[in-house]
Amino acid sequence: MGTLDSDNLRDRPIGVFDSGLGGLTVVGELASLVPGEDIVYLGDSARVPYGIKSLDTVRRFAMEDAAFLLRFSPKLIVVACNTASSAGVEPLRRRCGVKVVDVIRPGALAAVELTDGAIGVIGTEATIASGAYRRAIREIDPQREVYSQACPLLVPIVEEGREPSDPIVLHVLTDYLSRLQRRRCGALILGCTHYPLLAGAIGKLMGPDIPLVNSGQAAAKLIGQKLADEGISNPRPSGGYLHCYTTDNPQRFARLAERFGGRAADHVEYVGTDELESQPQLTNETR
Amino acid sequence: MGTLDSDNLRDRPIGVFDSGLGGLTVVGELASLVPGEDIVYLGDSARVPYGIKSLDTVRRFAMEDAAFLLRFSPKLIVVACNTASSAGVEPLRRRCGVKVVDVIRPGALAAVELTDGAIGVIGTEATIASGAYRRAIREIDPQREVYSQACPLLVPIVEEGREPSDPIVLHVLTDYLSRLQRRRCGALILGCTHYPLLAGAIGKLMGPDIPLVNSGQAAAKLIGQKLADEGISNPRPSGGYLHCYTTDNPQRFARLAERFGGRAADHVEYVGTDELESQPQLTNETR
């Protein structure tokens, strides 16, 4: 990308990618905090979910997703997917030549600021196995107790469209959260973009004294602050567009997006995974 | 492939593909019915599951999976994945130049032979939405009543390793099966390779009068018969190898395979989805 002064960056879109639809919860947060920013979103719905795959595979997918977003010359790339974030964004930062924001560190920071007590983390199998939240919390406070719980059924439960009051949702949540309830955590990080859709039910089970940390919301706040600090916010007070790309059926994406969004997409378009995998940016460095 | 006489075909392996590990239940059935046959298996674990994706995407993945298996000059390709089967195997048959067996028609046929009553079908969201089982049953018996139920949580439940006696498994199954129970079906097709692992619990809920049809088992029987009829069975009475390829981590594949198998893999190797997507066989016809 070379170096660019802030005048050039202001009007550029923010690029956001996720394994599927979940990252739209982060887009919703961004849209309410910085409504003037244009957003280009890539949901890799053909290869969703990332959370049950190995970190090597997730890293390769994330690199391809980010390379696709570079076509739109974004001022910033947001790794909205917790699993992709937990697989490590340093390689993305090195290769993309633009700022890359993940959702792990903002979530960890928000939790540490909320409580002096132990911190609970729930996430996908891959996110929890990576230990990324634990590391991020311990970098901020090396003594902090962290209790983690993988919750593999929550993503499919949300994608199936079950309501938080559904007895199966409550049964599954009770099963996953019982260990964390016993640990008397001071805050609980919702370490997956799908989990805010179950926040009501999770909050009821954990009780009113345990604040829930929405990682995507924490990342959106940090992004808003970063854009302002660096003088690269879009000067428009509102009216940014949301253009979405998906690797699976765009009609299906548009239909399901409403559940996650909070902001309607202006445009949804298909891009094949074969196209993502054959991007010239990647040929020399990742294969 | 050109034409080949049966002498040439006898020693060739059977190629089997699936979206992930589930197809190993079909391999297990094949291994006990025709233990002398060599098997090359491809599990597309990097893009699993297929059952929540659009049929167009599933068709493209299936074509890539089949093209990969052609490298091993198989005598037959088995589409072990119900979702890939339900997306239609005619394009595979036309392009592969070898016999292609899917799991839908064998399952439908077995169910029609078992009962004169209504037939229940459970499967993934994409399999049920495709209507493939209903069509296959009605082709055999145009008047037959068919009741279908998508069960999106069952695959993640099996992959999480929950036992059939787990209260959550029973709760979810009760939720999905209640409508089929009321319909008084004469047989129930387990229309997904993962479901045989829950057969005990499903059988208890449906009651002893409702036989369960394992589509993979039905397909394996048909394959054994087909090989014998055409004189292309491997003459060895036993000792066939099982070579597996996976698009995700091979160690993880080998570890989880035990749960599905019934036959240990002699060899597990990685093949990238980027390699699958750049196969020359496909360049002219599918892109």
Q: Can you give a write-up of this model?
A:
- 2 copies of one chain form a homodimer.
- Chain A is α/β, with parallel strands linked by helices and 287 residues long.
- The first copy, chain A, has 2 domains: 6-102 and 218-286, Rossmann fold, CATH 3.40.50; 105-216, Rossmann fold (3-Layer(aba) Sandwich), CATH 3.40.50.
- Helix content of chain A is 48%, strand content 16%.
- The first copy, chain A, has 15 helices and 10 strands.
- In chain A, the strands form 2 sheets. Chain A has a 6-stranded parallel beta sheet, with helices on both faces. Chain A has a 4-stranded parallel beta sheet with strand order 6-5-7-8, sandwiched between helices.
- In chain A, helix 13 links the parallel strand 9 (242-246) and strand 10 (267-270).
- In chain A, helix 6 crosses helix 8 (132-140).
- The first copy, chain A, is globular.
- The two termini of chain A are 22 Å apart.
- Chain A binds chain B through residues 45-48, 52-54, 56-57, 60-61, 152-153, 155-157, 159-160, 167-168, 171-172, 175, 247-249, 252, 272-274, 277-278, 287, and chain B through 45-48, 52-54, 56-57, 60-61, 152-153, 155-157, 159-160, 167-168, 171-172, 175, 247-249, 252, 272-274, 277-278, 287.
Total strands of chain A: 10
Task: Supply the CATH class of the largest domain in chain A.
Answer: Alpha Beta
In the predicted model, the low-confidence regions of chain A spanning at least 5 consecutive residues are 282-287
Portion of residues within helices of chain A: 40-55%
Q: Write down the overall mean pLDDT of chain A.
A: 93
What does the oligomeric state look like here? homodimer
Biggest interface reads: A-B, 33 and 33 residues
- Kindly report the spatial arrangement of strands forming the biggest sheet of chain A: 4-3-1-2-9-10
Second rung of CATH, namely the architecture of the largest domain in chain A: 3-Layer(aba) Sandwich
Q: What share of the residues of chain A does DSSP label as strand, in percent?
A: 15-25%
Distance between the termini of chain A: 22 Å
Query: Could you give a short account of the major beta sheet of chain A?
Result: 6 strands, parallel
